[in-house]
Structure formats: C-alpha cells, structure tokens
Design a protein that fits this description.
Helix content: 25-40%
Oligomer: single chain
Strand order of the largest sheet: 1-10-9-3-7-6
Shape: elongated
Strand content: 25-35%
C-alpha cells in the first residue's frame, strides 16, 4: 500500500491496475458536528460546467453511473464508486471535499483518511490531521485528474466557507432542488446561447471562417445535426510526399474547413490536432484564436518525415480520448456522452497495415468515427517528396487498403468511411461537407443502439 503526504502526486497506474475504484473517507470528529463529503466533477477549466457531476447528499449519482455515493461502511463516513472509463470526455478532474456544519471548524476534527480501494483492497491512503487547519469550514482532500493519463494528488487544503463557497469557487450555482439534467432539445436554449456567442467570436477573430461555418451548417441541417455535439480531431499525414500540399497552403485551407465543422459540433471554437509520419504526434488545439498560419508554424516544429504509419497515430488518438485502454485491445463497449469525429488525411499507403486494422477493430468498441480522406490521383503517378533524391510511387493500390477498411470484418460497429480527392482545392465546400457526413449520421444511430453513446 502506498502512503501519501500532503501535496504528493502519482500516476494512477502506479497505484491501481483498474479504473474501477472506491474512494472512501473516514474521520474522527471530536467536535461531534455533522460532516458531509462530496465529489465535484470538473471540466478542463476546473469548473463545474455540468451540475449533474456534483455528487453530494442531495444527488447521489452521475447520469452515466461513473460516480456514485454508496454511503457509510465501518469507519468510512462516505464511499464513492468511481468508474473513470464511463466519464464523459469533458470531465477531466474529480475533486473530493469535506464540509463541516454549524459553528464547528476543521481544526476541531481529530484526524481523517482518504483511501483508494481496488477490488476490496486498500491500495493507497492519505491521512490528515485537524491540527493542519484553522477556522476553515471545508477541506479539499484529494483529486483524480486527467493530464495525458489519470493522476492522483493528495491536496489537504483548507477552504473558507462551506459547500456554497465551494460551489461558487468551482463555478456552480446553489439551488434548493437537485440539479436537473441538461437537455439538448430543438430549442436548446443553453446550447443555442453558446453557439451565438461563438458565432460572434468567429466574426470578430476569424471573419474569413464565417462563410465556411455557415456552409457546414447547411450540410448538417440535411441530417438533422444542427444541435449535435461532438469532439472533432484532425489527423494529418506529414510524410515527405505531402510536401507540395503543405508548401502550397492547401493543407492550411483544408484544416480551416475542418475547423469550421468543429465549430458547429462544439462551442469551444477549436479542434484537436494530430500528426503522423514515421512517428505519431499529438500537437494540441487548432482554433479560431491561433488558426492564422498555424500549419506553416506546425511544420517548423514537426518537419516532414520519411515514413507513413497509420496504426501508431490511431493508438495515440484512442489513448487521448479513452485512456483506460491505453490505445490497446478492447473487446467490450465503452459509453460516453459525446462522440469523437476524426478526419484522417493521407496521400499514401501505411507501413503497418495489420496494426491499423487492429486499431480500427479495437476502436469500434469506442464512440470514435474515422473519416479517411486520401489525396492523389487514382492512376500511377510519381511525386517528388521535397527531400532531395527521395521519391515515392503513389498508385491506386495505395488507396485500396483504405477502401477495404470501410468493410473490415471483426468490428463491433462499422466505424469508418473513406473517400479520395485528386486535389483538396478542386472540391467545393458544399461537396466536402456532404462527403464528411455521408456515413456519420448512420454511425451515430448505431452507436446509440450499441450503447456507445447515451
């Protein structure tokens, strides 16, 4: 068992082998005052953006069942069942807090203990003393948070004010009744307000994207997806044969078109960016705040490489969104509130076909849709790569593998689509968005039926 002291951090994988845990709190209360233990599920900005993920005495479980308060047992005054694999993508941190009622303060407790329990075995503990605090009415005990992977921190920080002050600190709102689920309706007032705000921001910061965003909306309206929300990722081939596409600015233009789709699917005005060649790269967000000249700057940091490996970057993407499997084999469905739409762009064949097929099969148990797009002529052509003396032959057979992925056997659901274009600038915005939505709506329906999406 691992003992933690205040401020100590650790990878969760160094504590437990599973993402199904019990977090249990015990406390010797010399003040004989009522103690309440709560769990705050926060977003990437450390805010309680969804009140359904505040688990406390008036709301015992999150809607997806990822967090539930299961009550006292023995010395434990509260226990939480935690299943990190079921958390929606936007919940990045779980904060465990304790508040004390009446006139009592935290310095009056004698001692406390937070335990991490896996399969009935205490794997780690963090002990704290009342002498560590003064007149605080609340205590932030510990955190589980996602940064590349799940981590644990023993916090042990006193907090002035009780639950109301904590709610205010984390951006929540106190009500006299339990928080109600947020709904996406046809009116979608809260979502619509956020979209209007984003549209204003686009008009101010990226006016050249306004037309693209509206064009994408037209395609989405055809499929009744104007209120749909999803994470969008753009995965770009940086193998050397892509040199001319980058130097001509065509990849910047394509990236902006995908960003416009992402602005319709999510109100944060950005998409996640991944690159692949010989090696995979997760390079952060591409959005309306940084889109000007983004691709050009990107290539300064990630020069073109001499190989092409789809499977390696697919593993990185899967691990980024659903880290419980670490991008490895999965044989049972994982459920989430938001799907992930991956736009995967390449101009040639992969050197790891079997690994790519494995990744596609394993990811079929996750709410990820892969839209493969190939760039190049269907007949045999020879392209100069931009690296002196190095050439690559590109033929129709390069794209045959991508075509076959669309009918790959052994998948939980059909989670991929493919199309090719000779030149990305020779296809209109309307045509591109229609192609991007060709199979995605049908996959969404199937994903819900197969319990990949709520």
């Amino acid at each position: 068992m691992k003992d933690f002291v205040r401020g100590q951090k650790s990878k969760l994988s160094d504590i437990a082998t599973s993402q199904q845990l019990i977090i249990a709190l015990s406390c010797i209360n010399s003040a004989n005052a009522a103690l309440d233990v709560s769990c705050f599920g926060l977003d990437a900005n450390d805010k309680l953006s969804d009140d359904r993920y505040l688990i406390f005495y008036n709301q015992k479980s999150s809607p997806c069942g990822s967090i539930s308060a299961i009550g006292q047992e023995g010395d434990y005054i509260e226990r939480f069942n935690i299943d990190l694999s079921k958390l929606p993508l936007y919940i990045k941190k779980l904060v465990f807090v304790m508040t004390i009622d009446g006139s009592a303060v935290m310095s009056q407790i004698k001692s406390g203990r937070l335990s991490i329990i896996e399969s009935g075995i205490e794997m780690a503990k963090f002990q704290f003393e009342g002498a560590d605090f003064a007149s605080e009415k609340a205590l932030i005990i510990a955190e589980l948070y996602f940064k590349d992977f799940w981590r644990f921190t023993a916090v042990g920080q006193g907090f002035n004010g009780g639950l109301s002050a904590l709610l205010s600190h984390f951006g929540g709102t106190e009500t006299s009744t339990p928080p109600q689920p947020q709904k996406e309706s046809a009116s979608g007032t809260q979502m619509e307000s956020k979209r209007v705000s984003l549209e204003k921001k686009i008009a101010e910061k990226a006016p050249q994207l306004v037309s693209l965003v509206k064009t994408a909306q037209v395609s989405l309206q055809k499929h009744n997806l104007t209120q749909h929300t999803a994470k969008v990722a753009l995965c770009l081939d940086i193998s050397a044969s892509m040199s001319a596409l980058y130097s001509s600015g065509k990849m910047q233009t394509l990236a902006e078109r995908v960003l416009a789709l992402g602005c319709n699917f999510d109100d944060d005005g950005s998409i996640d960016m991944f690159l692949f060649g010989e090696q995979p790269h997760a390079v952060g967000q591409f959005g309306i705040d940084n889109f000007n000249g983004f691709i050009k700057q990107l290539l300064r940091n990630y020069p073109l490489e001499g190989g092409t490996y789809y499977g390696r970057v697919m593993k990185v993407i899967r691990n980024f969104y659903f880290p419980d499997a670490r991008g490895d084999k999965r044989t049972s469905a994982v459920i989430a509130e938001k799907p992930v739409y991956v736009m995967f762009v390449t101009d040639g064949a992969t050197a790891d076909q079997s690994a790519t097929e494995e990744q596609l099969r394993w990811s079929s148990y996750e709410p990820i849709f892969w839209q493969f797009m190939a760039i190049g002529k269907s007949k045999k052509d020879v392209k100069k790569t931009g690296i002196k003396g190095w050439f690559q032959s590109v033929s129709a057979s390069d794209f045959a593998f991508l075509e076959n992925l669309d009918t790959l056997s052994g998948r939980y659901v059909d989670n991929a689509n493919f199309f090719s274009v000779e030149d990305p600038q020779h296809i209109s915005d309307n045509e591109l968005y229609d192609l991007l939505m060709a199979e995605y709506p049908a996959w969404l329906k199937l994903a819900k039926e197969k319990r990949l999406l709520y």
